[in-house]
C-alpha cells in the first residue's frame, strides 16, 4: 500500500499573509479522498523527528536556536516569517514524515509527504519558508543507519535546492540534481552535483527533453539505491513566482519520467511536494494531485 504523510499542523501554524499557499496541504488529501484515488488507510500522521536525526544534518547551534525560539531576528527574516513553536513542530513532523515515507518506500516502491521539500534550509540556516531540510535529514538518516549507500536527490522545484546542495557538497554518496529557473530565488545559488539552469518562459517540450537526457545520465553516473524527488508545481505557467511556462500536462509528464526511471531501475523513491503559488488554488491542488494520481496508476498494481 502506498503511504502518505499528512498532519493537520501542515496547514495551520502560519501567520496572516502566508496562509493562502498553505491551504493546499488541507485540500490535497481532501481531494484525493473525495475522488477515490486514496483511502484513509493510505494516510499516516508522523510524530516529531528526534534531535539525534536533526543533528545528523543541521548545526547544533542553529537547531537549538530553533528549538528554543531564540533565532536572531535577522535569521527569522531570512526564513520569511516570525518563529513560533507551532512552526518548529510543523517542520519536525514534516521531517519525520519523510523519514517514515522513505522506510515505506523501501517496501512499496514509493511513498509521499503531502508537505516537505524544504530544500532552502542549509546546514546552519533557514531560508525561503524552510526551517529544516526534510529530504536531507532523511538522506543522512538512511546513510547513518546503513539503509542506503548511494542516494540521488532529484529537485524539480522551480527554485534551486540551494540548502540541499550546500549540505551535501562534500558527500559523494549523495548526488544532488536541480533543474530550476536561472533568474529566480535564491539569487545566490549553491553548487549542486548537477545544476540545470533554465531560461524564463521555458515550456513543456524543451523542459521535458532536457529532463529526459539528464535523468538518464545521473542514474548511469551515480547508480543510486534510493531516490528523493521534490515535485514542485511552481514550474506551471500560472505560477506567480515561477517564471517558467509549463502546462499541467507537461508537469504530469515530468513526474511520469521520474517515476518510470525509478521503476525501471528498481530504485525506491520518496516524494515531497515542494512549491506551488498559482493565483487559483485549484491549479495548485490539481497539479499536485496529478502527481499522486499518476503514482497510484503506476505503482499501485
TrEMBL record:
Which SUPFAM superfamilies does the annotation name? Arginase/deacetylase
The highest taxon in the source lineage is Bacteria
Keyword Hydrolase attached: yes
The reply to whether Hydrolase figures as a keyword in the UniProt entry is yes
Q: Which InterPro entries match?
A: HDAC_classIV, HDACs, His_deacetylse_dom, His_deacetylse_dom_sf, Ureohydrolase_dom_sf
Q: Where is the Histone deacetylase domain?
A: 20-289
Keyword terms, alphabetized:
Hydrolase
Show the Gene3D superfamilies listed in the entry. Answer: Histone deacetylase domain
* Family assignment from sequence similarity: Belongs to the histone deacetylase family.
Protein name per UniProt: Histone deacetylase
Recorded source organism is: Pedobacter punctiformis
Per the UniProt record, the lineage of the source organism begins with: Bacteria, Pseudomonadati, Bacteroidota, Sphingobacteriia, Sphingobacteriales
Amino acid at each position: 500500500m502506498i503511504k502518505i504523510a499528512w498532519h493537520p499542523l501542515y496547514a495551520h501554524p502560519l501567520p496572516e499573509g502566508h496562509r493562502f499557499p498553505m491551504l493546499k496541504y488541507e485540500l490535497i488529501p481532501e481531494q484525493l479522498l473525495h475522488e477515490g484515488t486514496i483511502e484513509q488507510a493510505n494516510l499516516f500522521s508522523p510524530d516529531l523527528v528526534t534531535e539525534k536525526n536533526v543533528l545528523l544534518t543541521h548545526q547544533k547551534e542553529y537547531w537549538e536556536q530553533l528549538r528554543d525560539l531564540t533565532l536572531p531576528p535577522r535569521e527569522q527574516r531570512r526564513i520569511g516569517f516570525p518563529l513560533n513553536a507551532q512552526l518548529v513542530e510543523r517542520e519536525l513532523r514534516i521531517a519525520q514524515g519523510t523519514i517514515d515515507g522513505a522506510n515505506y518506500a523501501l517496501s512499496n516502491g514509493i511513498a509521499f509527504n503531502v508537505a516537505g521539500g524544504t530544500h532552502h534550509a542549509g546546514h546552519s540556516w533557514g531560508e525561503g519558508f524552510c526551517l529544516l531540510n526534510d529530504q536531507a535529514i532523511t538522506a543522512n538518516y538512511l546513510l547513518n543507519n546503513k539503509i542506503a549507500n548511494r542516494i540521488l536527490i532529484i529537485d524539480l522545484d522551480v527554485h534551486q535546492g540551494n540548502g540541499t546542495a550546500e549540505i551535501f557538497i562534500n558527500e559523494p554518496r549523495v548526488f544532488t540534481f536541480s533543474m530550476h529557473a536561472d533568474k529566480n530565488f535564491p539569487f545566490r545559488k549553491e553548487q549542486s552535483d548537477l545544476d540545470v539552469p533554465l531560461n524564463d518562459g521555458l515550456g513543456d517540450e524543451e523542459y521535458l527533453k532536457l529532463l529526459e537526457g539528464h535523468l538518464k545520465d545521473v542514474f548511469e553516473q551515480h547508480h543510486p539505491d534510493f531516490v528523493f524527488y521534490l515535485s514542485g508545481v511552481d514550474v506551471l505557467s500560472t505560477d506567480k513566482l515561477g517564471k517558467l511556462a509549463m502546462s499541467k500536462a507537461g508537469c504530469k509528464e515530468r513526474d511520469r519520467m521520474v517515476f518510470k526511471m525509478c521503476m525501471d531501475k528498481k530504485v525506491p523513491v520518496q516524494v515531497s511536494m515542494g512549491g506551488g503559488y498559482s493565483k487559483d488554488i485549484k491549479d495548485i491542488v490539481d497539479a499536485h494531485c496529478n502527481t499522486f494520481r499518476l503514482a497510484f496508476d503506476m505503482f499501485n498494481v
